[in-house]
Amino acid sequence: MDGGEATLEFWFSTGSTHSYLTAYRIGPAAAEAGVALSLQPFNLCALFRADGYRPFPENAPRTLHMWRDIARRAALLGLSPRLPAPYPAPDVPMTNSIAQVMVRRGRGLEWLRSSFREWFENGLPPGTEAATRNSLLALDEDVNAVLTDANAMSNVLALEAATRRARKLGIFGAPSFLVGDEVFWGDDRLEDALAWAKGAWL
Amino acid sequence: MDGGEATLEFWFSTGSTHSYLTAYRIGPAAAEAGVALSLQPFNLCALFRADGYRPFPENAPRTLHMWRDIARRAALLGLSPRLPAPYPAPDVPMTNSIAQVMVRRGRGLEWLRSSFREWFENGLPPGTEAATRNSLLALDEDVNAVLTDANAMSNVLALEAATRRARKLGIFGAPSFLVGDEVFWGDDRLEDALAWAKGAWL
């Protein structure tokens, strides 16, 4: 974090569908706003499990709307995902551990988009072996090296700590944006969060 | 509906918290977009009940965020509600029957704002006798006359029909916006729905 510079934390979890839009939008939007970005993967499934919460039950109207909303908004970004994609993604904390490694390598957003291409274009949700492999190979990463780093105890513990911190901060879904201790939930709150980070709210 | 003119249907239910923002925003936004507006109250509680769904459990992080989000966005509109307000509002279909009457009298949005002033400023949620009375008196309406119209069998049946239609259309929350058979959910989708209504999507 640079001294005095406004920073926005992008909290995401690999199985979150609307994070697809954010993965494409947040880089340019933060740059345009002059806001520094930090990426924070966490394990949203663990929070849902603890609460017995199912955000998108199969065939529920809210689930159909979720896919339709993403399709409509993706079109505005020039994206043509094949939706609905397989859902839910397998509950595999490993994919968020990989996200952490890729964030440390400075390729967090790149990898997230690569992961979404597997899920939303090739029908391979995060947490499947094929998606893990393909999403890394597409970025010319050494799959085994990334997996070794992802499985390192320190990395696994860091993900658990991030997930506990999410809970403590009041984060309950993804994408979420954190500015100081102010939580903004949902891709459609990206602009609000950026305005807040710039102190340009009112 | 005027021939050829784009129309947006605003589906709302009196106990929906985010509809507060919409009640203030939708009139000017639709006028600016040149989109005709029609108001459609329905009984969202009945849909939640049928699904065993509780959108905002007490003290859940999503519930705290919901109030915070409304407070932040209300400030942008120059509004200073006293939040959190009592929640949930009593599950009383009558308030949506009153909404229907006020829509027919051409005062739907005015009444919705009046109802929200009782709830978000005076702490009287819709469905309480005091809120019903005050929200109508503030508009110089004859409370007994409105209640008589609201309780008329035809009005009660119309609300039930609207609620069934909501279910059939895939509406699952409020506010929702309907353009043709395209459903947009949430106050933050108002601009998307208006763009869709104008045929200005892509």
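qc> DSSP finds nine helices and four strands in chain B.
qc> done
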